[in-house]
Write a structure and sequence with these properties.
Helices cover 65% and strands 3% of the residues. The chain is mostly helical. The chain has a two-stranded antiparallel ribbon. Helix 1 packs antiparallel against helix 2.
Length: 126
Amino acid sequence: MKQILLPAALTALMSAPLAAQEAGEEGDAPSLMERGAELFWEGLREEMAPALEDLQGMMEEIGPSMGAFLAEMGPALADIAKQVEDWSAYELPEILPNGDIIIRKKPKDNAPADKDQGDEEGVTEI
């Protein structure tokens, strides 16, 4: 997926100056805002080029192992996602020293009292 995003992002960044050039060739000189935006995008491309190259290299390195992981674990993770109704009811995962991962439910101390219990105490909900 990230291999698709990188070329798409680069294409989008490179196409902005081309649109500005086409407008300039039609006889309309670019405004100061257009020239400023063009310079901004050009500077951004120059600054981002090393980071994008590093990202591409990293994706080439970890891409095959990530694909294998998703192929193996994807169905199991999808089953877990179907079973859990409310992710906010769980604590952050905890990794034990032996490598086990525990995901605990949050305590229900903050849960509202039952309606029957509130009616018995003379408290009504608004």
